[in-house]
Amino acid sequence: MIFQNKPFFITITNKFTGQFHKEFLIDGTEKDSVIQTIISVCNIDPLSFNISAEEASLEQANSWIQDKFPNGESKHNVVDKDKNIVELLYNPMGNPYG
Fold it and tell me: In the sheet that 76-80 helps form, which strands lie side by side, from edge to edge?
């Protein structure tokens, strides 16, 4: 899967606790349409979750798709291949340098 339009990072946080929930990477054309696509395809309830979208560069998005954990597993799960939606995964150990 390669991103060709404008990739967006979509961050989902809980409205009540403010805690991080999920992050998606989606290929789209405009901010509002990608948010609506995430709500419908990923079954995100906008009454319970804050949804923010930030435009990313094509190079950054495509490098995330090709990146792998040290054990060789991919750093994303494909949610919808036709619409170029992936859920970004993070190492459960966290960032030891952060």
Answer: 49-55, 6-14, 20-28, 85-88, 76-80
53-60 mean pLDDT: 90
Q: Cβ distance 50 to 15 under 8 Å?
A: yes
Are 32 and 23 in contact, with CB atoms under 8 Å apart? no
Distance CA 56, CA 54 (A): 6
Question: Tell me: the pLDDT tens digits for 3-46?
Answer: 888 999 999 999 999 888 899 999 998 999 999 999 999 999 99
- The pTM of this model reads 0.81
Cβ atoms 42, 48 nearer than 8 A = no
Cβ atoms of residues 27 and 65 within 8 Å? no
Tell me the C-alpha distance between 77 and 55, whole Å.
Answer: 20
Tokens for 65?
């798709």
